[in-house]
Design brief:
Chain lengths: ~250, ~250
């Protein structure tokens, strides 16, 4: 971060900071080739929700937090983009939840796994967090997936009943749901397969979500009722209404 | 392209091919650091229009082609992403229009300029096209811009009255409009500054646009009436309607 010189009052500061974090992560070998393209897609969808946490996302986040707090078998799964953008807050969340965090990447190579594990380990040291970091020695498989992308840890993803999987691939999301888990998806595209497949879908940007979950942790606000499809429809309606407004503003 | 092995019948073939072209271009030093993120944003907006040329885009393309054909001072401006994705068809279009093509990049470095010029030169040889490729020795400046991004060629962008500038930055687009040119923008985000600023805005993906312009060249179909704001509003209405449909399909 030392070489990031943008002015925090710059209107695009948040966006520039995220790009900077990802470019750094790419240089360090944390990201797959498609990671920057995926981030760009996220930027476009984020623009459509006004680059803020909208009401439907907050409702989903609160419900997700209730679910995470009310189990002893929660896990947080992180990939390259997630670790680069929200590694610190997700490590803090894992510490608050007393749950493990598992590095779990779609394009698994020993090099990328090692860099990501070191990245989380460094955060653990810097913030003095008591968190178990999993992923180094996968000893279980997600049924229904083929090849390296099925690999996971028995003590983490495999045995969990509630899993937070930001920016997850549709196939993997589906396989986790098929295992009977409560799958909490964070995806800016409300129409992605993951978004439609998840048990709880938070249509919001991962750094904002992670920050919100940490901030709300102490609130003890229980959300008991939640309908994911209805919430997704509300999100799409919100996007529609903003597009209509923006359309009307073209002169 | 030799190492691109995807099956053309794959539902994501077009999308995978574009990513492959960009990854190749990145390896060859043709792209700026932000190019892949920009492409990802494009993918997201393309998804919203169904990854096809919608009616409003076709109308804008036809009108743009009329304008390009009815002047002796047309120019096609290309940057890294444009050259990588649509270099061949834009070179063919320049040959049909008998107009120059100018390499004109936002983050100008001698290395990137050289790789891009060589890329277009190779297309010129391969397809035996009679096209003047400009950009190597800029000798003019676009008024209102600072630094290297103002550089352009007198015989190309500077003297043109109709300019096709796909995937252009908002500031540059504004500066070209201020010079009194008819600025034809190709941008998948109908709400970008370039889209709103352009004289003729084609909300479509650049490889489809370039192919359409080449295919339609011989048609001699004149489009005489065109209202860019109205056309943009039609595009937004189209997106709104598809989102509403997609929203209704969530069960």
């Amino acid at each position: 971060m030392d070489d990031f010189a943008a002015d925090p009052s710059h209107p695009r500061y948040e966006s520039l900071l995220k790009r900077h974090l990802l470019e750094n992560a790419a240089e360090r070998g944390m990201l797959a080739g498609s990671a920057l393209i995926a981030h760009g897609r996220g930027e476009a969808y984020d623009y459509l929700i006004g680059e803020k946490t909208i009401e439907s996302a907050m409702i989903a986040s609160k419900y997700a937090l209730s679910k995470l707090k009310n189990t002893s078998r929660a896990v947080i799964s992180v990939n390259g983009n997630t670790a680069a953008l929200a590694g610190v807050d997700l490590m803090k969340l894992a510490s608050l939840l007393r749950c493990p965090i598992e590095v779990n990447i779609f394009y698994r190579t020993p090099e990328r796994m090692s860099v990501l594990l070191k990245h989380l380990e460094a955060i653990k040291q810097e913030y003095d967090l008591d968190v178990e970091i999993l992923g180094a020695t996968p000893d279980a498989r997600i049924p229904g997936l083929e090849g390296p992308r099925a690999k996971c840890c028995h003590a983490g993803i495999f045995s969990s009943d509630v899993i937070l999987v930001p920016l997850e691939d549709g196939d993997r999301c589906e396989a986790l749901v098929a295992m009977g888990k409560t799958v909490i998806v964070v995806d800016l595209n409300p129409l992605s397969r993951s978004a439609k497949m998840g048990s709880i879908t938070i249509v919001d940007e991962i750094t904002r979500v992670a920050k919100n979950l940490v901030t709300m942790f102490g609130n003890n606000e229980e959300v008991l009722q939640f309908d994911n499809s209805e919430n997704l429809r509300n999100t799409l309606n919100y996007i529609n209404e903003s597009l209509t407004e923006m359309s009307n503003s073209i002169d």
